[in-house]
Automatic annotation (TrEMBL):
This is DUF2249 domain-containing protein. Transmembrane segments: none annotated. SUPFAM superfamilies: SirA-like. It comes from Anoxybacteroides amylolyticum. InterPro entries: DUF2249, TusA-like_sf. It comes from the Bacteria. Residues 4-69 form the DUF2249 domain.
Length: 70
């Protein structure tokens, strides 16, 4: 499992970092990202690429998204 903390970055940096990390992720593995906001445009990309994902809002108002490479 890989964790990528994207808090404090301005768009489109969080999405670019996430997509780059997903390219290196082995099939069946998961990537967890932490973002300041819900990554609406990333969801569209994940759907197109066939990734599974789950989003949880954290107590500090940030979002934790667990992405599985299928």
């Amino acid at each position: 499992m890989m964790i990528l903390d994207n808090r404090g970055l301005e768009p489109p940096q969080p999405m670019m970092r996430t997509l780059a990390a997903l390219e290196t992720l082995p099939k069946g593995e998961t990537l967890t990202i932490i973002n300041d906001r819900r990554p609406m445009f990333l969801y569209e990309q994940l759907d197109e690429l066939g990734y599974l994902y789950e989003t949880k809002e954290r107590e500090d108002g940030s979002f934790e998204i667990t992405i599985t490479k299928g």
